[in-house]
Amino acid sequence: MSPITVFQARQILTMNPRQPHATHVAVREGCILGVGDLARMQAFGDFTLDTRYADQVLMPGLVEGHSHLMAGGLWKFSFVGFHARTSPDGRVWEGCRNFDEVIARLRAADAALTDPQAPLLAWGFDPLFFGTERMTVEHLDQVSTTRPVVILHASQHLMNVNRAALAAAGIDRDTDIEGIARFADGEPSGELQEFAAMFPITRLVGNIFRITGSSPESLRLFGQMARLAGVTTATDLVNDLAEPNHAAMMQVTGEPGFPVRLVPAYLCLDGSLNRAQGAARIRQRQAEAEGNAKLHYGLVKIVADGSIQGFTARLRWPGYHNGAPNGIWILPPAELKAAIRDFHAQGFQLHIHTNGDEATELALDGIEEALAAHPRADHRHTLQHCQMADAAQFRRMATLGVCANLFANHIYYWGEAHLAQTMGPDRAFRMDACATALAHGVPLAIHSDAPITPLAPLFTAWCAVNRLTSSGRVLGEAERIGVPEALWAITQGAAYTLGLDDRIGSIEVGKWADFCVLHESPLAVAPEALKDLRVAGTVIGGVPTEAAT
């Protein structure tokens, strides 16, 4: 019989409502054999008592239900976001507080490049923090007039480029693609909105922003970030599952020390595969990964609209508070419904990006029609972000068996801008309405969408509990949820949306022995201190990882 290890902790928060607390957990063959006190462990016979966590707190490994593997590899490029961020190596990148600071950072990066033809890439920019001024080619031509300069916005739904990039990509005043912003004279301004407009640039530079999530080196960086955040299962919610991506994920998840289980969701961005071919690729990858407990295929990503802060999300009346035109359909409504119908009919679980409430309504229409044509119990289709859903839409989700994974971090990072510019009063107060979702019985997760915001589920839980903006304003007190509900959303709730709640999300017999190790209990600190809890390490499959702090 395989050896048994019993981990002792000051407290174990199991997230199992039938046995919420314990002090010891027995592990055999990477799975949980028993939970309770030391006396209960005696029933299992001989075991090794591991006391390394005797003064610390265990809870289930945290589950990030919406992230992107590029969050690790993007740190190969310059960060030009408004809020400070910490890279996987521990370096703190101060925020760029105005356009001049963005340009200065890019000039420094330009000076460091040795290849005069290489594009200069940066990420994290968001003009919403700078009032009404938009970045244009006039700004980025100050960095270089010869090499392409490409900045991916924080939302990843927009980018800014200089004239050299526009010329190299063949974008000019006669290019007829929706989403190319223009000056009054018709010339492209350098802002490109959504995937169709960005495609000529990503083709030019090799879509490096996506490639950053597909190399073994980048995946190891992502694993390091996950471990530091207490995350033991994370998604990659845009992945075409091409051979290089699959090979890299198989490689790193097969390495004994890799500290996170990966759950990629299929999405073909370049149109090279139709839906039938995409479904075949998913099934092929499922077969190839069979037996790999750290790599799970079967999710499909569908993108309905854009981003609220980029003014490309689709909104119902009264639209954008500042009068901006309605957003962009990433998939035209008929095509969106067809994608939902076809992938649903083939048995896949759908994760549908809907930021605006008009997009949410269309996605629910599509799911309802798909269920009528192809009834399926327990499908767990999940609306991702779903930021502007109202009570009627949450009631409809509950009726249809649809889950919601809400972008709680938006309240902190963009709350003030949503109040003043995008949504205005009332609607900003009900953004990411966790309390309403729970009140109507919708299975709930909350997320970071890393690298859009930092991978840090305890911070995400803090956002949902406190709903504080970066300036300290409470935005929508009625939508606050309690700490226990927020902890459920980053463990069992997220696991449920991934169809993995039978294996992760709580500490109970039969599940994988994945734990997050904390110095203090999240139930013992003030709700305002939830984001400040220190992660001491993780355990995955019963194997402790290197200490995080």
Q: Explain this structure to me?
A:
The protein is of the alpha/beta class. It folds into two domains: 70-210, Diaminopimelate Epimerase, Chain A, domain 1 (Roll), CATH 3.10.310.70; 213-538, Alpha-Beta Barrel (TIM Barrel), CATH 3.20.20.140. The chain is 31% helix and 20% strand. It contains 18 helices and 24 strands. Strands 1, 2, 3, 4, 5, 22, 23 and 24 form an eight-stranded mixed sheet that branches. Strand 17, helix 11 (333-345) and strand 18 (349-354) form a beta-alpha-beta unit. Helix 12 (357-373) packs parallel to helix 13. The two termini are 35 Å apart.
> Largest sheet at a glance?
8 strands, mixed
Q: If you compute it from the alpha carbons, what radius of gyration comes out, rounded to the nearest whole angstrom? A: 23 Å
What proportion strand? 15-25%
Ends apart, CA distance between termini: 35 Å
pLDDT < 50 runs, ≥5 residues: none
Overall tally of domains: 2
Strand tally, please? 24
Using the coordinates above, name the CATH class of the largest domain.
Alpha Beta
Q: Can you count the helices? A: 18
InterPro entries: Amidohydro_3, Metal-dep_hydrolase_composite, Metal_Hydrolase, YtcJ-like
Organism: Pseudacidovorax intermedius
GO molecular function, one term: hydrolase activity, acting on carbon-nitrogen (but not peptide) bonds
Keywords: Hydrolase
Topology:
Layout: E1 5-13, E2 21-28, E3 31-36, H1 38-41, E4 48-50, E5 57-60, E6 62-64, H2 70-73, E7 78-79, E8 85-86, E9 92-93, H3 99-112, E10 120-125, H4 137-140, E11 149-153, E12 158-161, H5 163-169, E13 180-182, E14 188-193, H6 194-205, H7 208-211, H8 216-228, E15 231-239, H9 243-253, E16 261-266, H10 275-288, E17 299-303, H11 333-345, E18 349-354, H12 357-373, E19 382-385, H13 391-400, E20 403-406, H14 409-422, H15 434-439, E21 444-446, H16 457-466, H17 483-489, H18 492-497, E22 515-518, E23 535-540, E24 543-544
Parallel strand pairs: 1-4, 1-5, 6-15, 7-10, 10-11, 15-16, 16-17, 17-18, 18-19, 19-20, 20-21
Antiparallel strand pairs: 1-2, 2-3, 5-22, 8-9, 11-12, 12-14, 13-14, 22-23, 23-24
